[in-house]
User: Fold this.
Amino acid sequence: MNSIRAAVVQASPCPFDREGSLERVAELTREATNDGSQLVVFPEAFISAYPWGASFGATLGQRTPEGREEFRRYWDSAVEVPGPAVDRLAEIAGENQAHLVIGVIERDQGTLYCTVLFFAADGSYLGKHRKLMPTASERLVWGFGDGSTLPVFETPLGKIGAVICWENYMPLLRMAMYSKGIQLYCAPTADSRDTWL
Assistant:
């Protein structure tokens, strides 16, 4: 494997605004590739934002109208896979000739998932990984992945894969990725604590 240049984006999206966040991805990807990056990795839940501090009005046994409205906005800003947002991300990857790894909130039927999407430099969509075990209160809003999406993709840069945030503390999950020959191990995370340094 030859050396490559990668960018790890540490920026904020436009919360609960899918279209605004997609434009932010386009800007940040362009900036990274102008600096020579071949791989651009965005944080967990970049589209449409990690719901930091949001309660969605949830108290066990009751809900509030304000919380329902807040959750509706979050739901509406989530990404359908496949769908127009995935198509736009593929365009961004292709326009910039960069491999793209990005965290999104995926909407599938009646459930939201914390998901990572993978795109090749030619603009093709490679696949996804759904977070297996949402952490703590994330379980109030995100569903559990079922383990069927633990991909490692063969690319000209090497074998790319990702697990999300606290999944990196799961030894068996990491071993599953190692057994697939992962070479570029991405770890999209929305947590800014020193634990990750």
Q: What stands out?
A: The longest strand covers residues 99-108. The mean pLDDT is 93.
